[in-house]
Amino acid sequence: MDYLQAIDTLISPASESDLPVIELFAKSYDLDCEDLSWKQFIVAKNSDAIIGFGRLKTYPECTEIATVGVLPEERNKGVGLSIVKELIRIAPSEIFVTCVIPNFFHKAGFETVKQYPFVLQKKVDFCKLYDFSDEQIFVMKLQK
Ligand SMILES: CC(C)(COP(=O)(O)OP(=O)(O)OC[C@H]1O[C@@H](n2cnc3c(N)ncnc32)[C@H](O)[C@@H]1OP(=O)(O)O)[C@@H](O)C(=O)NCCC(=O)NCCS
Q1: Is the distance from the beta carbon of residue 54 to the nearest atom of ligand 1 less than 6 Å?
Q2: Domains plus CATH for the chain?
Q3: Which one of 1, 26, 134, 140 has the fewest beta carbons within 10 angstroms of its own beta carbon?
Q4: Measuring from atom 23 of ligand 1, which residue has the nearest CA?
């Protein structure tokens, strides 16, 4: 992350007015848009403009990091990893993620698991709608 990026980007809880923008970007990146609530999200902003977002999805059985996205022009500057690290900080001790980019989440400390709460199977099935095979979909876990 370069110095300018570091001082210009603020990560904070989302507000209600952020949700339409988050939803627009999340849909355009084919991310999980199930049961969206602004209260689940944190946002990264540069001069008040949203450049990235992510959420904690809470199920009775577990907590999942989901719907992490960074605007294309802001990628590869450390914003995505900063969002994930902040979500980890505010999450309970056991956190899951279901993804097709395991290397990215591995950088935040997640490890692939073969056994996971049944509710996450829904997310695995969602990824398959986008033509990902079982071998390309990873459920990962981090224990703080
Ligand atoms: C995935 C995404 C959030 C990453 O955001 P980003 O701001 O570009 O990520 P960062 O700059 O923080 O990258 C941190 C590290 O992860 C790596 N990385 C970034 N995107 C990656 C990807 N798609 N696959 C594997 N590694 C990735 C970077 O190379 C960097 O590694 P380094 O520290 O060794 O240089 C962003 O590319 C995005 O919005 N993609 C589309 C939506 C998506 O796939 N979301 C995840 C759904 S669960």
Answers
A1: no
A2: 3-143 (3.40.630.30)
A3: 134
A4: 101
Q: For residue 11, give Cα distances in angstroms to 71, 106, 122, 134.
A: 14, 21, 29, 33
Average of pLDDT values for 38-63? Answer: 97
CA separation, residue 71 to residues 22, 28, 41, 58, 100 (Å): 10, 10, 16, 25, 18
Q: Which atom of ligand 1 is nearest to the CA of 82?
A: 12
Average the pLDDT over each of 3-12, 64-73, 97-106, 112-121 and give the range with the smallest value: 3-12
Give the span between the Cα atoms of 109 and 90, in whole angstroms: 15
User: What is the mean predicted confidence (pLDDT) over 53-66?
Assistant: 97
| Tens digits of residue pLDDT in 75-97 | 999 999 999 999 999 999 999 99
pLDDT at 78: 95
Ligand 1 centroid distance, CA of 104 (Å)? 5
Answer whether 29 contacts ligand 1 (Cβ < 6 A): yes
- Residue 1, pLDDT > 60, answer no
